[in-house]
Amino acid sequence: MTVQVLRCVGDFAEPPPAPGKVEAQTNGLAVTIHQLRKSFGQNEVLRGIDLYIGAGEFVALVGRSGCGKSTLLRLLVGLERPSSGHFRVGNRGAHAPPVGAIRIMFQEPRLLPWASVLANVEVGLGEERPSANARKRALATLGEVGLEDRRDHWPSLLSGGQKQRVALARALVGQPRVLAFDEPLGALDALTRISMQRLIERVWVDQRFTAIMVTHDVAEAVTLADRVLMIEQGAITLDQRIDLPRPRERGSPEVAAFEGRILRALFCNAAAGEDT
Amino acid sequence: MINLFSVRQSEKLTQWALPIGIVAVWEALSLAGVIPLRILPAPTAVIAAAWKLTLNGELLRNIWVSFWRAIVGLTIGGGIGFALGLANGVSRRSERTFDTTLQMIRNVPHLALIPLVILWFGIDEEAKIFLVALGVFFPIYVNTQHGIRTVDVQLIEMGRAYGMSPTRLFWRVILPGALPSIFVGLRYALGIMWLTLIVAETISASSGIGYMAMQAREFLLVDVVVLSILIYALLGKLADSAARLLERWCLSWHPAFQLDIETEA
Fold it and tell me: Where in chain A is the domain with CATH 3.40.50.300?
């Protein structure tokens, strides 16, 4: 009898599951892409993408300008229609994800200049906006990005980094299950960029959505992502898993090694592409 | 703050210094006999005329009649212009249907229609209201349509990506985005509104400021003529100030208006 009780105490005392086991505690949805193609007129931007992104995974898409990475992202959030092929968000046979389950954060903040900071965050609540605790949630999310005291300001009074934090709060407030980032830090200065990367990593660890980030910056991709995918001329040419513990130290030899490997692949393939 | 306040006060004084100075010089020249009274009466004579016409109620009645015509014309013409501007800004089909016709009408000076309007409506109220409505229609129509067409497409895309219904997209993104341009149209329309009214009232009316001026001319009452012109100037300034106030209130988010907010706060 005594033994049994002790065993129970032992069970409760067990540490929470290791952070590596993402699938067990994720809030995110898996994304399955099959033979996805997209053309604009004669120009074929995506040439048959096959990809599986696990629920709660952080994936970075890198590649040169015009390689199709942003187009892939815009297809996933429904801003473009595929020319052929299909993709599924969520598991096979599951219900279609509810409206607002997939959110996007753009390269520009795209805040409504005529709405206060708080009202801009509330845009992210979509249909839930009139509900009773909507304002409370918007405020809490604004607190998470550290801008609670700016709630009544007009966006034009904020700095570039602050605007992008409001945009992040707007994306987060609806508790998305897939969050797409379209180079959201591209226009920020180096310091603001690093603190934004930390912020994004922190909220991702907290909320465990599936994150898909398009970026030009290979170092950023290696610091944040579980997997770095390289897209070249509309196809995935590299799928690199980054199994380093978090938080990752920028400039550490391990991060630098991955960065070097991806950059080499990028340049070598580009040179090969130019030869043909 | 105190410093800023006094700066604003003195700025206010500066903008009135010139008109007051001009009136003072005018009065002095009239008293000295440099300006013949038949050409331009002294300001005091104009004030006296205003007082006399106020006492017998004629002045206020005429101002009211003109004001009423202006407001009714603006409401009708501006309302239709705004509605068509919205429709043609939002819908390509609507634009294809209406825009060419409207642009053709726009190129006819609306005052050229006065003979036709008199044939249609006589010199009744409808004639003046029709002309004012026609005059204010185009600036409001053109600027509303332009405002809606030039709303930031990135914001519209954001609204769509965040699940806004077309109605909410309109109220939350498109209309506020078009508002600065709509206000430009409104202020331009106010100018045209008074211009049209003055012309219409001088040519065909039996009441109103313009009629008062024409009557006075027949009896060589130069002071009343000058008074009428001054009243038009004041009414015009009043309408413009009202529009500015409305603009400042509606566009307080706009960077161009934020200095004022900070000094008021």
Answer: 25-101+177-276
Contact indicator for A103, A179 with CB cutoff of 8 Å: yes
Closest by alpha carbon to A112, among B235, B59, B97, B168?
B168
Name the percent of chain A lying above pLDDT 90. Answer: 58
Tell me the pLDDT tens digit for each residue of B33-46. 888 888 888 999 99
CATH of B43-258, one of 1.10.760.10, 2.50.20.10, 1.10.10.60, 1.10.3720.10: 1.10.3720.10
Interface of B with A (CB under 8 A): 154-155, 157-164, 172-173, 176-177, 179, 251-255, 258
- Is the domain spanning A25-101+177-276 CATH 3.40.50.720? The answer is no
Query: Using a CB-CB distance cutoff of 8 angstroms, which residues of chain B are in contact with residue A127?
Result: 163
Interface test with chain B among A104, A112, A153, by most B beta carbons within 10 Å: A112
**Contact call for residues B82 and B90 (beta carbons, < 8 A):** no
pLDDT at A51: 93
Residue of B163, B176, B253 with shortest CB distance to A154 = B253
Distance from CA of B5 to the nearest CA of A (A): 22
- Phi and psi for A226 in degrees, rounded to 5? -80, -30
Question: Residue A124: which of B162, B172, B176 has the nearest Cβ?
Answer: B162
Written as one string, the DSSP assignment of A93-144 is TSPPPPTTSEEEE-SS----TTS-HHHHHHHTTGGGTTSTTHHHHHHHHHHH
* Pairwise CB contact (< 8 Å): A113 & B254: yes
Q: Do B154 and A106 touch (CB under 8 A)?
A: yes
C-beta atoms of A103 and B162 within 8 A = yes
Are the beta carbons of B157 and A79 separated by less than 8 Å? yes
Torsion-angle region of B3 (φ positive above 0: left; ψ -120 to 50: alpha; else: beta): alpha
With a cut of 50, list the residues of chain B below it in pLDDT. Answer: 1, 261-265
**pLDDT tens across A203-216, in order?**
999 999 999 999 98
Residues lower than pLDDT 50 in chain A: 1-24, 275-276
Mark yes or no for CB contact B161/A100 under 8 Å: no
ipTM exceeding the 0.85 mark: no
Residues of B in contact with A123 (CB under 8 A): 158-159, 162, 164, 172
pLDDT tens digits for range B138-163:
999 999 999 999 999 999 999 999 98
